[in-house]
Amino acid sequence: MLRWFGAVLVVLSSGLISMNEVIRSRQRIRALKVLVEALAAMRGELSARHMPLPELTEHLAARQKQPAAEFFGAVTVNLLRRELPFSAAWEMALRETEPLRLLPEERQAMENLGRQLGRSGLDRQTEAILAAEKKLALFLELEEREHMKKSRLRAAMGVGAGAALAILLL
């Protein structure tokens, strides 16, 4: 009886471990969607209202979904409390905002955007935001495809590996 109980625990544990990866992938997809939407809002607000960047990041922090709101809030805090240049505040907020779950290529696209904001005219800034938005949308599409391909496979492999190990242990 105890052996069967242990076997069931092994199967459940391996299934939960594999499901954790599926959940992480979903969280990444959600974070990328929210970030793309936030960049679109940023572009729209910048071109429509011509807000200064500190006010714009504060405005976005109040109106966007998490984790984008957390990111823009961190940019605002870095600008106001630490008195950093905008690009440094932006990069620091990227490092501090863990829920964004950005891969190195995605982080690089966001860092490039941060370097371009505040250094050129309004048209160039909106173009830079649009370019970063398109890059992140492409990364989002790739992540969604990867999730569709691998989510069922990961779950099945986890349960299968647990079942195989349980059989070996019995």
What Rg, in angstroms, do the CA atoms define?
21 Å
Helix content: over 70%
Note the overall shape.
elongated
- Mean pLDDT value: 83
Main sheet?
A: none
Order of helices and strands: HHHHHH
Structural class: mainly alpha
Low-pLDDT segments: none
Count helical runs: 6
Ends apart, CA distance between termini: 11 Å
What fraction of the residues are assigned to beta strands by DSSP?
under 5%
Number of strands: 0
What does this 3D model show about the protein?
The protein is an all-alpha fold and 170 residues long. The protein contains six helices and no strands. It has helices at residues 2-49, 53-63, 68-81, 86-96, 104-116, 122-169. Helix 1 (2-49) packs across helix 2 (53-63) and helix 1 packs antiparallel against helix 6 (122-169). The longest helix is centred in the N-terminal third of the chain and has 48 residues, at 2-49.
Q: Strands, helices and their partners?
A:
Blueprint: H1 2-49, H2 53-63, H3 68-81, H4 86-96, H5 104-116, H6 122-169
Helix pairs in contact: 1-2, 1-6, 2-3, 3-4, 4-5, 5-6
List keywords for this structure.
single chain, 170 residues, mainly alpha, elongated
Gist?
The chain is built from six helices and no strands. With 170 residues, it is mainly alpha-helical.
